[in-house]
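Chain A, query sequence.
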Amino acid sequence: IKEHTKGKVLLDATVPLETAIGGPVSNVLHINPGSAAERAANILKDADVKVVAAFNNISNSHLANIPNPIECDCLICGDDGKAKEIASDIIEKIPGLKAIDIGPLNKAHLIESITPLLIGMNIKFKSHYGGFRITGIDFE
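Chain A, predicted structure.
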């Protein structure tokens, strides 16, 4: 994808999940250099692509039902401030969704690693729409 992404912002929603055939999601695969988003950034570094990890914890069921509001927070991280602003602007165009910048791209493994927890909760409670909301912090 290098030729199509040169000089652009890439929102990476990848979560490398480990599963058993026919079984539940058990864990996030450990990827070198630390996360799927960092791996994408490393692969695309020669193309001057700004990678932002985003949407990793937003249910595909929610995303398939836009413009219905998504009452979740979208954790993002990346190494380029302008790219994170662009990502946040895109994210916050979706009704109910709020972007929360958790820092540099090396934090992507944290965002990716909580996805199996969310998937497990959705399975346990027979939902497709569970998500996270960060409370008690004034982001303004």
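The longest helix spans residues 81-91. The CA atoms of residues 14 and 36 lie 6 Å apart.
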